[in-house]
Amino acid sequence: MTTHYIDITLLPDPEFSHAHLLSALYAKLHQVLVQLQANDIGVSFPRYQQHPRTLGTVLRLHSSEAALARLMGIDWLKGMRDHIALTAMSPAPTGALHRAVIRRQFKTSVERLRRRRMLRKGETAEQAAAAIPDSAQRQPNLPFTQLHSATTGQRFCLFVEHVPIQASPQAGSFNCYGLSHGATVPWF
């Protein structure tokens, strides 16, 4: 149950943009969540906006007091301490609303989709192009952070969506990015 939270605020930096710092911070969080095999720590972005598109400058961690203490007992913020301000762990406000924070994945590259179809169905490039027109490419309009995949070695965009607010919490687990399709976090 997500009863407590910690805010991590990115500080202004003349050398690095907030987007760059958030990417580095989120990569470190992902690594430690994988290391801990934690499925009880969620995230939200209190300054999230779609127009202009940004996750903002605050990463909020949500969980139980014990889980957050375990996370913060590891020096996972090493190298980031000069770039962040960290609040003390606090209980979530009584009566807070709730929302799920989810990852959205998009099929954005028609070339990749066509190559995949050619391999799967044994089609020619022309057949794949006829089956997957250029209009199939989607332009996501959600805020995102860029991460580096440890598996493939490639950079990718992690698109984040805050789903509509709910009056009551929904229990569930979080993935290694602190996101969930079912579990909610307090929203305040």
SSE blueprint:
Elements: E1 4-10, H1 18-36, E2 42-44, E3 49-50, E4 53-54, E5 58-63, H2 65-72, E6 84-86, E7 90-91, E8 97-99, E9 101-104, H3 110-121, H4 125-131, E10 144-148, E11 155-162, E12 185-187
Antiparallel strand pairs: 1-5, 1-6, 1-7, 2-5, 3-4, 8-12, 9-11, 10-11
Helix pairs in contact: 3-4
Query: Order of SSEs, N→C?
Result: EHEEEEHEEEEHHEEE
Give the strand tally. Answer: 12
Q: What is the CATH superfamily classification of the domain at 4-104 and 163-181?
A: CRISPR-associated endoribonuclease Cas6/Csy4
CATH architecture of the domain at 4-104 and 163-181: 2-Layer Sandwich
Residue-averaged pLDDT: 92
User: What is the first-to-last residue Cα distance?
Assistant: 16 Å
Task: Name the overall outline.
Answer: globular
Q: What's the CATH topology name of the domain at 4-104 and 163-181?
A: Alpha-Beta Plaits
Compact overview of the structure:
By secondary structure, the chain is of the alpha+beta class.
Account of the 3D structure:
- This protein has a domain at 4-104 and 163-181: CRISPR-associated endoribonuclease Cas6/Csy4 (Alpha-Beta Plaits, 2-Layer Sandwich).
- It has helices at 18-36, 65-72, 110-121, 125-131, and strands at 4-10, 42-44, 49-50, 53-54, 58-63, 84-86, 90-91, 97-99, 101-104, 144-148, 155-162, 185-187.
- The strands form four sheets. Strands 1, 2, 5, 6 and 7 form a five-stranded antiparallel beta sheet that branches.
- The mean pLDDT is 92.
- Helix 3 (110-121) packs across helix 4.
- The chain has four helices and twelve strands.
- With 188 residues, the chain is α+β, with helices and mostly antiparallel strands.
